[in-house]
Every structure is written in C-alpha cells, then in structure tokens.
Amino acid sequence: MIDVSILIVNYNTGKLLKECVDSVFRYEKEIIFEIIIAENASDDNSNEIVKDLMICYDNVRGIFLNKKKSFSEANNLAHKQSSGEFVLIMNPDIIFKEKLLNKLISNLRSDNKLGTVCPLLTGKDGMLQRANLKKNPPK
Fold this sequence. Notes:
It is built from four helices and four strands. By secondary structure, the chain is α/β, with parallel strands linked by helices. The protein has a four-stranded parallel beta sheet, with helices on both faces. Helix 2 (46-56) links the parallel strand 2 (33-40) and strand 3 (60-65). Helix 1 runs parallel beside helix 2 (46-56). It is globular. 23% of the residues are buried.
C-alpha cells in the first residue's frame, strides 16, 4: 500500500522540478510514496525532464496535459490517478532538507480530528515563510 501520493503541477519549471523530485528521493527512504507530476503544457524542456524522472524513478508518473489547466484542475487530475492513503500537494520549488513524510503521517494518524498538516516552509535564507501560514481559513 502506498502511504503518500505526492502531487506536483509543473509549468515551465523543469529544472526546479528535477531538484524537487531528487530531494524527495534523497531523504524519504522509510515511507512508500508515489509522485504524480501534472505537466501543464509547458513550452520549455519540462516534458523531457518529466520523462527522464519517470525513467530514473519507478514510482514517478507523469500526466501530460496538452492544454494549460488551472492549478486546482491539474491537481484534481493528478489526484484521480493517485492511490496513497494521504496526499501531499507540492509546488516544484519545494526542496526537502530532511526526512519529512513520516512526521506528517504520524501527526495525521495520531489525531483523527486533523484533516490537514503542513511542514514549516522556509526560504533559501532559512527564514520562515509566514505568508503561507494561516491557522484558520478566512470566512
């Protein structure tokens, strides 16, 4: 059984995408995961990079959209093809710096009142990205 399906929508960010996916594989050895990349009709070399990632890693799949979709629609298409117990939606500029998935899964499994968890997001400068943190959604 797959623990986590990681969904990534890519649009013209092939180089970042490769760094992102490589970082997940660098740190995540204990969790069974799949990565589904929705390649959103990029006009750079992203198609080739996604294909290379699929060759390099058995558990990476690509969805090649022939027309650019909204971020949410592209994620929904990827989600339909996912099979993980949990879903992690990531942007291609996220770079893992440590093991992360086990901590997130442990939090979700330990408290059935939780519906969502998020790691602390830091920028290249190491500073917390506060703009991404919201305790409660706006009403």
